[in-house]
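Module 6 notes. Inverse folding takes a fixed backbone as the condition and produces residue identities as the prediction. Think of it as a translation problem where the source language is geometry and the target language is the twenty amino acids. Below is one complete input and output pair. Work through it position by position during the lab.
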């Protein structure tokens, strides 16, 4: 297909269906490795990688290329093996086949499959699937949606910030930094959580803010940001502007994901 067919598929909603089906197929591939005796290797940056990461990424890349062959992809394991592109294309996929690998190998549930479409530096479509939770969140033509595997889609929306708002934070944050970030963002309590699942739980109105001060890669955030923004939320960089994509090295600085 030519690239302009992607624009038609995005407008019609066909693209959203294909992304969800692809992410859930990757989840099905990943699950047999979860809580199993899977070999864990170290990448150049000392982050872990498993056969589940690699096989899921290969499946996603193959399916997307078969339909939209002219759209390039920036995918985590591909970048680890070959290096990141020097510049970003106007339109490309950002893929993290298994976000939260450390928790995955420890048998935790908060790991996700992430696929996003970037156009002119903005995430315009995205899907996040949590294999262990049998749940998918996606951008749709009407906003944002969630479904349990095999069930119907239902719309989701951020909630208005309550007086006792709840912050979601990475488990890597110290208790001292967590208390500081919680107060800075006007929240009464905080909860630790891994992976892009944080964006989705804010998008469906269960939590309120996710501040991040440590570095992340763009494929860690793009799909979750797309879902959260479609649900009425925002993801702001350190400059107060919406978090943009195609930065040097495909790396993010500090950001804050916000609900209502």
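Target side of the pair, the amino acids:
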């Amino acid at each position: 297909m030519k690239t302009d067919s992607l624009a038609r598929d995005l407008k019609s909603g066909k693209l959203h269906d294909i992304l969800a089906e692809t992410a859930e197929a990757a989840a099905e591939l990943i699950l047999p490795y979860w809580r199993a005796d899977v070999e864990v290797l170290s990448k150049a940056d000392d982050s872990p990688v498993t056969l589940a990461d690699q096989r899921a990424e290969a499946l996603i890349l193959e399916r997307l290329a078969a339909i939209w062959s002219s759209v390039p992809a920036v995918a985590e394991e591909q970048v680890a093996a070959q290096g990141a592109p020097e510049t970003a294309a106007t339109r490309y996929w950002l893929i993290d086949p298994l976000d939260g690998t450390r928790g995955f190998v420890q048998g935790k549930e908060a790991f996700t499959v992430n696929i996003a479409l970037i156009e002119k530096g903005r995430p315009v479509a995205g899907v996040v699937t949590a294999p262990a939770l049998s749940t998918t969140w996606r951008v749709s033509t009407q906003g944002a949606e969630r479904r349990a595997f095999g069930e119907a889609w239902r719309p989701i929306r951020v909630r208005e910030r309550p007086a006792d708002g709840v912050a979601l934070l990475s488990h890597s944050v110290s208790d001292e930094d967590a208390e500081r970030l919680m107060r800075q963002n006007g929240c009464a309590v905080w909860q630790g959580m891994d992976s892009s699942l944080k964006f989705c739980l804010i998008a469906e109105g269960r939590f309120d803010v996710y501040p991040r001060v440590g570095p992340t890669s763009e494929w860690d955030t793009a799909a979750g940001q797309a879902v959260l923004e479609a649900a009425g939320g925002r993801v702001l960089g350190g400059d107060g502007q919406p978090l943009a994509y195609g930065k040097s090295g495909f790396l993010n600085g500090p950001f804050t994901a916000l609900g209502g």
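Reference fact for the lab report: The mean pLDDT is 94.
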